[in-house]
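Please produce the structure of this protein holding phenylalanine.
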Amino acid sequence: MNNNINSIKEEALQEITKADTLSQLEAARIKFLGKKGKVSDLLEKMKKMTPDEKPLFGKQVNSLKVSIQAGIAEAKKSLEQKSERLCSFVDKIDITLPGLKKKLGTVHPITQTIEDVVAIFRDMGFSFADGPDIETEFNNFDALNTPEDHPSRDLQDTFYLENGSLLRTQTSPVQIRVMMSKKPPIQIIAPGRVYRNDTPDATHGHTFHQIEGLYVDKKVSFADLKGVLHSCARQLMGKDVKIRFRPHFFPFTEPSVEYDFSCVMCGGKGCKICKNSGWIEISGAGMVDPRVYEKVGYDPEKYSGYAFGLGIERIAMIKYGIDDLRLFYENDERFLNQFA
Ligand code: PHE
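Below is the modeled complex.
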């Protein structure tokens, strides 16, 4: 019998401590102390006992009842205190205060410009290609027909890594990667980051972005190159933009040009952005040099093609009227929020 009383006591105290709310506690009270509760069952059993057994058993049931009552009283007090604390906390919340605004990020103007340019060329049939920032000297220089003593290979211009690789100085090595992996026709656009050992100023950075374009097929001409670049310029800057080619030299194109867009900020009259010249230099371009075809195993007699670079920062500067390129990298929210 005693065993039974003890296990009821344990069960009751367990349920009482588990109760999280006053109604759970009341349910426990009814289960043990209610009219049809476990304690009443015990008293019912006492009726059938002999007069000898009754006094001891009665004492034990009584003490069980007292312990359960005490447990319930204590638990009730602590639940009430808890709910008081909660109420006073809720009273202190000022629901009329304005909420905290979530800050939303925006697409960075450089990323936006890359996306715009890639979309323009995608519409003209170019597909996307890319290559790694860490390149081999072969892809960045040798295969691009750059002589051993060319100044661009100099430590002053190129960041070399200890293992002999380098941070690519241009996106042109992607041309090599693509041509070595497939046969013409090839029509790709490849945006990416490039690195040069330059001292940063308003118009130069040690890290900047280019987009490489390459089109190789049968009978591709310089007129095709002019056409796509002009079309890209008009879509980016509006139909009044002019494009200008200046003779230049690149080891991997022949003939080569540097090309400029007319400054849309001043309509070509001259302003701070174009340094009063009316033109903004965008990058270089030209017809792929037959020596490059030899390096990648194409027949120079069979194929011709053009390649071009696009300086992304330059385009973003004229598009958004920004005269210092460092603004793009300082991540000042006051600057970036203007592109939201
Ligand atoms: N890679 C050259 C540069 O960074 C630009 C260029 C690309 C020139 C493609 C010709 C053809 O200056």
